[in-house]
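Supplementary Text 2. Reproducibility record for the structural model of the 675-residue chain.

All settings were left at their defaults, and a single model was retained for analysis rather than an ensemble. We include the record here because the model underlies the residue-level annotations in Supplementary Table 4.
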Amino acid sequence: MKDLTTSQKFVAVVLFVASGISLFGQDQPAAGNAAESFESHGEVTVGYRLTDVKGYRPQYEQLFNLRDGFRLYDLILRGDARERTNRFADNYSLSMSGIGGEPFATGDLTLSKTNLYDLRAQWRQSYYYRNQNDNVVLPITSAAPSLSTGLTDHHDWATVRKIGSATMTIHATNSLRFNVDFYRTTTDGSLLTTRSPDFFNSPSYWASFARANPYPHIAPLRDDTNRFAGGLDYSWHDWDFHYRTGFQTFNETIAMNPVSSPEVSINPAASSASQPLNQLSWSQTRRMTSPISDFSYRGGLSRSLDWRGGYVYQRYRGPATMDMSFNGIAPDSTGALAPYTVSEGGRAFLTEPYHAISQGVTWRVREWGTLNADYRYSRYTSETSLDVHSLFNGTTPSTGTRDIDWRSSLHDLAVNMVLTPRPELVLSPGVRFSSFDIESRENGIIDEARTLDTTHVRPELRFGYRPWSRLNFKGGIHTGISERSYTAISPHTTVAGHFAVRFEILPNLSFENTLRVVTSTLTESDYENRIRANTSTLSYAFNERFSIYGGLSYDSYFAQGDIVYARGTAPLTSTIRDQEIHRIWHGGLEAKPIQYVGFRVSANYDRLTGVGEILGEPPAYGPLTWPLATGTVYVEYPRWGRLSFDFQRTYYIEEIVQANNFSANLLTIRYTRGF
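Retained model, structure tokens:
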């Protein structure tokens, strides 16, 4: 018998619970001939989708991942007990969407009895997919004929993430509630990644070979996180207190194997063909457990002063393992090609405590002015004790012990005011001060490259202005200045602002515009980033049977910075630049020309121009076109429900590298019925 999938199990459980709930709705004789029953109602949508994809299908699946087949698109079921006389529950609700293979599927069940309990169970499933075409000849070959194809990243994934939770709240009194919750999330799937054949205490001549030869590997992945916690909520006068404690686990398993055996690296240089990887076996695991504790409170010290605060604690601890072996052909100390074998293993124990304390006050100074101040201190520590051993060519063993400590502390203070000098005007000036202290040590010695103590200041101003009922403005501006930057793309200075306006020209005609401007710089690495974005939309509703909208989004993006490679052959520096203009025209209409028939049409036309390049190399990424149009025709009759036909047309065209291009047509037939 074939095993049920997780989604099938979930559907079975939900249907079982739903059938149990429906029993509550049956009339049950009781003392005094009182009827215990539910008034239930809901709606269900089922359908079937057909797809026709031409070109590189993995790119379609990365962007849409809408596949053929039958679907339960939506199910909504709600019920209320008449006069709250049901002995089990006063109300319930069940909702499901995307069941049967959609990229995002959900389920939600609630059940409650007034002043007794509240139960909620949730389930989410999401598919994540990426697969760029690595079998392509890039433009670099025109500048470097020795490179047969050019270099693509060879990083793909096909994973599914599932999240389930259940929460029960027991109402002991009007002021005291007990909570119990369970949470579980899993990630399963497969990765395509690359790995350079480096190992512990490798000889100095090995570095150039390892950097030049990343090999592609298939890596099945599985991880799960489980949390079980309980706590209480207590209210006293104007004060609310919350406390939760529990236990959490995290388990991860990754295995890597070559895509083929033997295989060559992704480096398109001719020398790669003579340096194959004949075999590789790699596995690593982590098993972490942690107690969790969370306390928070909020209350009023006086009519004008509120106080809030909290404390969060967790402490992950557990073992990690890594074992690998590989062999192939590589240059030896003289540069001559020779067979090699490597094996390596490591055992580590990790401790990762985390503390976070927060305090805040709100002071209502006047009717037109409020002051807010919030402070947060967090400290994260990672302590790793590692024993590692390697064996090179069966004759050169190496062993070592490393104690790696990583400490990160953050002090964060945010102060702002909310001022309403006039009823139609709101101003909120503020400033945020942050202090970061990051320290990295290996065997007790500070690693200067990874250690940093810096401060960051961010003044800001937000506003809202509504001079009359049909015109509304809102926006803000902030600047950020860091004393020092941690990475080459962590800006030293940032200036950003946004502005939005909505104008109802007529009761049925409105105009919206949003503007966003960001400029970031870091002088040390010549890093600069500029974003200019604007979106305008015009909407018109002639009546309840006809509406139309249209607009344009314009994004200008520029980023440039220096690249410094850690090691390898010269040159070790270069410059990367990404410059593009993104225009999206969008529009749509909805109409119901006759009583039982209607249609909807919407379309986006996405056009990107510009290039992304490394200085001195031909660009591999540039202009693209990606339109999408959707049309829906439906026929509905109150007694029988609604029948809908969805037509979708899209295509994706990259002009420089065309290996990922595709076109697709989709037809979905949906039937919706209320009950």
